[in-house]
Amino acid sequence: MSRQATLNSPAFSAGKIGPALLALALLAAPIVQAQDAVRPSMAGESAAEARRQSIEQIPYNLQLGPMKLRFSATLGFEYNDNINLSEDASAFLLGPNGPVLVTTEQLSDFIIRPQINMNALWPITQLNTLRLDLGIGYSFYMDHSSYNTNGILLNPGSQLAFDIFVGDFRINIHDRFSLEQDPVAEIGLSNVADYGRFQNTAGVSVLWDLNAAVVTFGYDHYNYISTTDTFDYLDRNADILNASIAYTPTATMSIGLEGSFVNTYYDQNVLNDSQAFLVGAFIESQLTGNLKVRFALGYQEIDFDNNGVINDNNDVNDYYANLLLSHRVNSQLTHSLSLGHENQLGVNSNYITLNYIRHTANWNILYHTLLSTELFYEDAEESGVNSLIIIGPGIPLFNPFGAEHIHRYGGALTLGYQLTPHVTLGFRYQYIQKDSDLPLRDYTQNRVSVDGTYSF
Fold this sequence. Notes:
Layout: H1 14-26, H2 29-32, H3 45-56, E1 62-64, E2 67-80, E3 89-95, E4 98-104, E5 109-123, E6 129-137, E7 140-141, E8 153-154, E9 159-166, E10 169-180, E11 197-209, E12 213-226, E13 236-250, E14 253-266, E15 274-288, E16 291-304, E17 316-330, E18 333-345, E19 351-366, E20 369-382, E21 388-389, E22 397-398, E23 405-418, E24 423-436, E25 443-455
Antiparallel strand pairs: 1-2, 2-5, 2-25, 3-4, 5-6, 5-7, 6-8, 6-9, 9-10, 10-11, 11-12, 12-13, 13-14, 14-15, 15-16, 16-17, 17-18, 18-19, 19-20, 20-23, 21-22, 23-24, 24-25
């Protein structure tokens, strides 16, 4: 839930946010409607027909009437030398009855990960299509079976979506869901092996193509449900409004405004409820046939209600910025570089301020083999003075050392080999190191995995 801001500041009130977003979406409508067409419509029948033709070219292995389905199964094996993101160390932390000596230990394990994937397409009409993408998996820990998956895992890409084309409008009704366990995605965590959480985002988005400009607006309802007692204080709901307008002065450039409002409320009074507001501008340009850039800059505000027991009264009044460069060097190398500054809701405090730089590359240098590399660096700082500390299963403790400042960096190398038309083999190595200014919060992690996928 990054890039969020507030409603309750002197400059903004709840009664003004809805009209402000609507005005952002409709501001240029009367002007751009009268302009000559500069490109094919993104929402008309030609766009729907192009999408239908691209769908028909996707290789599916089962057809039930008008419905097309594609199934695949993956079996993966992984060695992880630090499943709980810990270090071998001891320190005194503040417990309910005073200082407590806490000892952490790094745990390693072999993990087996079976998974089944399904992709389904149902053309309801010639223009409107229902899609279902589902990935279901499980994790078996050989030495620490208590960390086995509770139920199943659902890939982050799992979704149910329905596209409707009506005149100059493209309407997308969606429900995107995931059930994950890996704690690495959350920079604020250490000493955690099972960060089980179910996330669901359901809503509708509308694209309105006005030829010289494209207006988008939408609403989503977000649910977060922890599958472990340790993190049930993170259970929450959020209502999300967003809008943008992009003007296309040339066929290779878009300039626009974007905005969003997010109201987040927790089930428990541990962390603070919040209202978030974001407004900014962006530019996207195809500088050359092989080089594309997108840059966004704006204002971000998050106001917290201070209704939780956590001792954190900090609000966000900050800028956000992100830059993305995508470059196709030649037929052997394509890569992208992204960097940015933003504020995210925290797991131990109100929020985390994050600065990041990430680089990914795809190397087409080996026959029938996809080689990709990833590098990243993150600098983050928590907002709280007495933030929460999670030390394994149990009641969270408060640390007496102040807000955490984090440096985290690493990389990965991935290989995919097409063995037969139906079988793909994969290999991946990943390294992550976290350096914290608080005790018991550093860790390094090495992961090596191999897998095989069979497409039916």
